[in-house]
Amino acid sequence: MSERESTVHRIPPFVQLGSARSTEVRSVPTRPAPKKPDSVDNASKEGVSRETPGKKASTVIDSIDESSPIARQLASETRRREKLAGRVLPKPKSTRVFTVSNQKGGVGKTTTTVNIAAALASAGLNVLVIDIDPQGNASTALGIEHHAEVDSIYDVLINDLPLADVVADCPDIDRLQCAPATIHLAGAEIELVSLVAREQRLRRAIDVYAKHREQQGLERLDFIFIDCPPSLGLLTVNAFCAAQEVLIPIQCEYYALEGLSQLLKNIEMIQKHLNGDLRVSTILLTMYDGRTNLAAQVAAEVREHFPQEVLSAVIPRSVRISEAPSYQQTVLTYDPNSSGALSYLEAAAEIAERS
Are residues 302 and 257 in contact, defined by beta-carbon separation less than 8 angstroms? Predict the structure, then answer.
């Protein structure tokens, strides 16, 4: 069996500890002065490291003073990277299809979709992102063209175009593909109303694509993530019917709890009438600000009600995560050493290790 067909894959190399610039303590220039017997002891008591010629600098994790908030955060991130380094991700027994959904807008659905998909693909798993949001933000973040002239998921749903004809490779990450969305999807809700089996069209397209890959001798997809618009229209219903699992990103604010309650009712309706295999398997806390009591209270309440579904990993508020899409990248390729990239790597590893 070749290494490519192995059932386990290693975390990508960019999860190793920081950059070379951040792993050494800089020497502190001092003026020439008479040596004092206790100068080294005084320096260590003050938390200042003075290197001597010929002596190797200590690492950050050994020398930092964790009494300050920034130092504690640095030490925590270093330990988390150490845990991820060398971790292997299991290959699922069959393709896992996730619908990433929340009726409330601005909770990080698209950001979560593209970054978790990128993390899993970087670990050597085969991942497909299906963008069914008319805004096409997931397509933008993955660097996929999605202007009006491009064949897209609209043509798959409305014109029965094979999914294989619209899937494009992500330019930055191997094994990651995307079926883009175009502005034409804005009218798809109305056009789907008159079509036969309108709720199952995406599911059938995915099944046909899986058979196509098998016939072409391509590796089976390990994960499919469907990025939904913030509504419960026919596009989102198609996503629910095509998936076995629901991933719900929840912003750590009060309104998010109200939106979650309504979303669960809608999922229950889908389970009863359209897709009995659907289940809420994963809840991810996003935009977490550890400086506020509200974020901690929301996180605690969600964990209390959904102890099995909520991931241990929490996505913080991060400028890097917000900046990455403007460069048509995920945060993992834009700034792999950022706290946001680290958190999404942890979340992806946790999802992969769950059955």
Answer: yes
Condensed to tens digits (0 to 9), the pLDDT of residues 252-269 reads 888 777 778 888 998 999
Helix, coil or strand: residue 131: strand
Which residues have CB under 8 Å from 182's CB, separation 6+?
A: 134, 136, 146, 147, 148, 150, 152, 154
Model pLDDT for residues 302-326, shown as the tens digit of each residue = 999 899 999 999 999 999 999 999 9
| Residue 113: exposure state from Cβ atoms within 10 A (0-12, 13-18, ≥19) | buried
- The answer to whether residues 111 and 135 touch, using CB atoms and an 8 Å cutoff, is no
Alpha-carbon distance of 228 to 108, in angstroms, equals 11
The answer to whether 253 and 259 are in contact (CB under 8 A) is: no
Question: Across the beta sheet with 310-316, what order do the strands follow?
Answer: 168-169, 176-179, 127-131, 223-227, 96-100, 245-251, 279-288, 310-316
Which region holds residue 217: left if phi is over 0, alpha if psi is between -120 and 50, else beta? left
Where are the strands (E) in the chain, listed by range? 8-10, 88-90, 96-100, 127-131, 168-169, 176-179, 223-227, 245-251, 279-288, 310-316
Beta bridge partners of 129: 178, 225
Helix (H, G, I), strand (E, B) or coil at 349: helix
User: What is the CB neighbour count within 10 angstroms for residue 224?
Assistant: 24
Among the listed residues 353, 312, 324, the one whose alpha carbon sits nearest the alpha carbon of residue 115? 324
Residue type, 78: T
Half-sphere exposure of 201 (CA within 13 A, CB side): 26
User: What whole-number distance in Å separates Cα of residue 88 and Cα of residue 35?
Assistant: 52
DSSP category for residue 161: -
pTM of model > 0.70: yes
Cα gap 109→132, rounded to integer Å:
12
* Residue of 323, 287, 266 whose CA lies nearest to 112: 287
Phi/psi of residue 235, nearest 5 degrees: -65, -45
